[in-house]
Design brief:
486 residues; 39% helix
Length: 486
């Protein structure tokens, strides 16, 4: 699972020591292999060496990846079925790393034909005439991956191919195979082709893929083509009971060798690992704040107020962490204007109070049950408080926090909030018995910065409020005031 990044547009340059002719290729002992044989051999090689097979994929080691590996070893095309934000596309793109780094091709071939296995009549003639002197090109594995997001306007011509009117206008006859403009699928010959959101593809267009999956050839209008395509076809789809926009037609489902269900992270540690790996944080976010956000995402996912068929994407927790980091950076920027010239600028360190903003900014990522209309932010705020309380108990349960409750005795109060600096917050609490143990429990080290200490203090104050040991009020100016329970 994880965030999807676009393939690099930079085309690598082949090493100079690769064979340049068909004769040199044969002399080097090169053997032609199909794509599925290539994937199988390289996957087995990684297994034997102990090398990571799918770098960057989090949470699937014991569930999804074994099924994917079995499908690859069996030579099966596959469809990944799961709710949104489960890393399906990320996993599909990771398959390309199992291809050979470089593979020989006929220069100029739109079908990436292998010099030892030409497909078209023109290529076979070219190989026969040139013999061992035939020039050989080399294709990097990054160029052997094709992808199409299925949309209702996708045509058979986009995927398979169509007649090229320009070539007809040049005087070629309609029966000439050279008049065909090949689509995305045949242009990914000898590679991996992915169809994202397959049910969104019109059913009559899905029919065009039947021959690709079974007979491994293509049909373009009235042409008699027998091009034995060599590719691995992988598709992703949401569960049919949720995507009312379409379905995978039964004959097409039958032709996929494997249907693999994906899932969200099965435990809290995997959720945290995913956030750490994928979130682009512009400020320091302490581990306990990340844990609050991970628990929050899981609570939203399991809430009866949320439509379980839509799912809550892993992008929800990632965006929440980035939003909290943005809030911390905003505080640091605003406080810099009021800081004394000789004072140290406020470092950007997130606090648990910064998470409040995510309940409004991220509600669009969640589909609620129809009866909850108008209560979305309220529901998310409740779940965030629950996640904060759970994190507080997980780390600080059993710890003597009476030093913090004593701070608000006799009507005293502690103010914190979005624009309260770390120095100001620490001045209010002074030397608190038990703070050193809190910092230790939160893994903030023996010598935390003042901003990290302030983040710990605010977490304790909020946790004590949520466990009914402190009162809390929010002023009109946005400051949070912690005091006694009256």
């Amino acid at each position: 699972m994880g965030r999807v990044t676009a393939p690099t547009p930079v085309i690598p340059v082949p090493p100079a020591d690769l064979p340049g002719t068909l004769g040199a290729l044969r002399a080097a002992g090169h053997q032609y292999r199909t794509v599925k044989q290539e994937l199988r051999d390289n996957l087995l090689a990684r297994m034997r060496s102990g090398e990571t097979r799918f770098p960057g994929i989090v949470g699937y080691d014991d569930t999804v990846l074994p099924e994917v590996e079995r499908a690859l070893l069996a030579g099966h095309d596959m469809v990944l079925l799961g709710e949104r934000g489960q890393g399906k596309t990320r996993l599909i793109r990771a398959l390309g790393a199992l291809l050979d780094e470089w593979t020989p091709v006929l220069p100029g071939s739109v079908l990436n034909e292998h010099p030892m296995h030409p497909l078209t009549p023109a290529s076979r003639t070219q190989v026969a005439e040139a013999g061992d002197d035939l020039p050989v090109g080399w294709l990097h594995r990054s160029m052997r991956y094709g992808e199409k997001l299925a949309t209702p306007d996708t045509s058979v011509g986009d995927l398979i191919g169509d007649v090229d009117p320009i070539r007809i206008a040049q005087g070629r006859t309609l029966g000439d195979p050279e008049t065909i403009h090949f689509g995305l699928v045949p242009r990914t010959n000898r590679g991996i082709f992915a169809v994202n959101e397959l049910p969104d593809l019109a059913e009559r267009i899905q029919v065009a893929l039947l021959n690709v999956l079974e007979e491994r050839d293509i049909q373009v209008r009235g042409y008699q083509l027998r091009l034995p395509l060599d590719l691995l076809l992988v598709a992703s789809a949401n569960p049919e009971d949720y995507t009312n926009r379409g379905r995978i037609i039964t004959p097409l489902k039958d032709r996929f060798g494997a249907e693999i269900r994906t899932h969200y992270p099965v435990d809290l540690e995997l959720e945290l690992a995913l956030i750490r790996q994928e979130a682009d944080l512009v400020a320091d976010v302490p581990e306990h704040v990340l844990e609050v956000l991970a628990r929050f995402a899981r609570a939203v996912r399991e809430s009866p107020s949320v439509d379980p068929r839509s799912g809550v994407s892993a992008r929800f927790a990632i965006a929440a962490a980035e939003t909290v980091a943005g809030a911390a950076l905003r505080r640091a920027g605003l406080l810099a204007a009021s800081a004394a010239p000789e004072g140290r600028p406020e470092a950007a360190v997130a606090r648990v109070g910064d998470a409040v903003s995510v309940t409004s900014t991220l509600r669009g990522k969640v589909e609620f049950e129809s009866g909850e209309e108008g209560r979305e932010t309220e529901i998310l705020a409740h779940l965030l408080r629950t996640a904060t309380a759970e994190t507080f108990r997980a780390h600080l349960a059993g710890l003597d926090l009476s030093g913090f409750t004593a701070l608000v005795e006799d009507g005293a109060a502690i103010e914190t909030g979005e624009l309260v600096s770390a120095a100001e917050l620490l001045r209010q609490v002074g030397t608190v018995p038990g703070l050193a143990k809190v910092l230790d429990r939160l893994d903030l080290g023996d010598a935390p910065t003042s901003e990290e200490a302030a983040a710990a203090v605010e977490f304790v104050l909020e946790g004590l409020h949520l466990t009914r040991r402190l009162g809390k009020d929010v002023t009109d100016s946005g400051r949070t005031v912690y005091g006694g329970r009256g």
